[in-house]
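User: I'm preparing a small set of examples for a lab meeting where we compare how different chains pack in three dimensions. I only have the primary sequence for this one, and I'd like the structure in token form so I can line it up with the others. Please keep the answer compact; I'll paste it straight into my notes.
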Amino acid sequence: MNNGSSPTPFRPHPSLPRARGRVREGGGIRPPFFYGWVLVAVAFVTMAVGVNARTAFSLLFPAILAEFGWDRAVTAGAFSFGFLVSAVVTPFVGRLMDLRGPRIVVELGVLTMGAGLILASLVTEPWQLYLTLGALVGGGVNCLAYTGQSIYLTNWFVRRRGLALSIAFSGVGIGSITILPWLGWLIGTSGWRSACVSLGILLLALLGPLNLPLKQRPEDMGLHPDGLSSDHASTDHAASIVDHAWAAVDWTLGRALRTRRFWWLAAGYFCGLFSWYAVQVHQTKYLIEIGFAPGEAALALGLVSLVAVPGQIALGREWVWMIGNLGFVVCYLCLIGLRSAPTPMLLYAMILAQGTLGYGLTSVMGPIPAEIFAGRHYGSIFGTVMVAAILGGAAGPWITGVIYDAIGTYSIAFWIAAGCNLISILAIWLAAPGKVRAVAGRAELLGRM
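Assistant: Understood. Below is the structure token output for the 449-residue chain.
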């Protein structure tokens, strides 16, 4: 009975077991570890399957060419068309993520990609290839891969942002060495149509349920970025700022578009992904043509992403962007050399340069724009920056195919792509994310390694 005095607080009897977690503000149990790392684990698996479902186009490419006899530019154009669709939908992905959170966006990508892969088994005309493996797979992957993951995971980490994204994106490497060889085997034994159906079912059955626990921000669970207390989080965020006047701006998309930094970012991302996807789409067919077995070419495609794992976890930002692009330059030089000397040593040099160095770009693709334009509207800004990246990814495979069809060799296309890497390096140094925010906690992290 309430007699007007303050209620006696409940204290559990010492013999009762304690909850294995902490009570969070507003009720409920807070897990004994930072929930952001759960999301990193989910992203790791999602990237492993989702990104490699798009990369699989390189393995399907020779089989589709063999069945239909279409021009390379026409066939590779389906992959490029998917990037053009992505360019249209990406700003809406960022906006939808800001409004509704990651769960709806990622699940939409899962459904779209799964449908595209399964329907690809019915393709008989180029337009059908463009619709399925192009628009549905190439457009849907944006919701669940680098763009989608970068938008919401950056909310959960500041001090360890680079590390968290690196671990999440390194799932691509684990998936590549498991999914791509398996898919190559399916193509060889059951045909490319059956392989598409199997991959589509895997994507739907695994990633659909897995992404249901996604949350937009740590504040949604009464938490703070990196799992820190509010005081520590504020101190860490302030300590990382180099240009306080820039960081104090409430960056909207309109304000960002009026800055040089935004356009340098766009140029750097366009050129970087032009080079990346030019090699990714044509690499398997090129290696087969110069004398490597289809199984070796498929393994090389998988190994490229696998060896990227340590580089992604260990490095970060302007220097990583430069080193990654230089890795692609070395990759292209090796590919050009392989035509006259198709040796295993040169092949594995290409794999190491592209994977260990080149794919390190993924670890900073999210943090670079976040450290320049962090704020409430980051999703919309990042989504728009990625339009430029996607246009580069679309142009690279298509232009490479056009050049090959015109002159019968990849050499000139490979030199153009290497030149794009050098332009990309310059553009990101001019964007200068390090002059806005320093990498929070990096010195501490290196000291523990």
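A couple of notes for your slides: Confidence is low (pLDDT under 50) at residues 1-28, 309-315, 441-449. Residues 33-217+240-442 form a domain with the Growth Hormone; Chain: A; fold (CATH 1.20.1250.20).

User: Perfect, thanks.
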